[in-house]
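Weekly structure sync, notes
Attendees: PL (lead), two postdocs, one rotation student
Agenda item 3: pending single-chain targets
PL asked that the sequence for the first pending target be pasted directly into the notes so everyone works from the same version. It is reproduced below exactly as submitted, 114 residues in total.
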Amino acid sequence: MRAARLRRSSEIALVRSQGTQLQHRMFALRARPNGLPEARVAVSAPRSVGRAVARNRVRRRVREAFRLAIGAVDHDQGLDLLIVARSAAGTARHEALQAAALGALERLSPKAAG
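Predicted structure, written out during the meeting:
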């Protein structure tokens, strides 16, 4: 499955209000089916993560981890993902961050629920 960016604030607000929520030490995740053949991702980082350079780095790292995880997980339909990075994502190894992203997406899979 392809990954794209979720950019419209109205769509982000819809995911925030109606999405399924998952918590992890490195990020908070909300997901909502979008009916498209691709996953769309929006990543944010609060000021508690650090200054602008640190927040940008954490956002890039989290976005890349989820991009790779989306390619590895087989979903029947696309998802809109809203990810709020936490400061632990900035210091974690890339492999650990990618494994956390993969685990979160697998938990969202309808096959795992059934």
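Discussion points:
- The chain has one domain: 2-105.
- The mean pLDDT is 90.
Action: rotation student to compare against the earlier draft before next sync.
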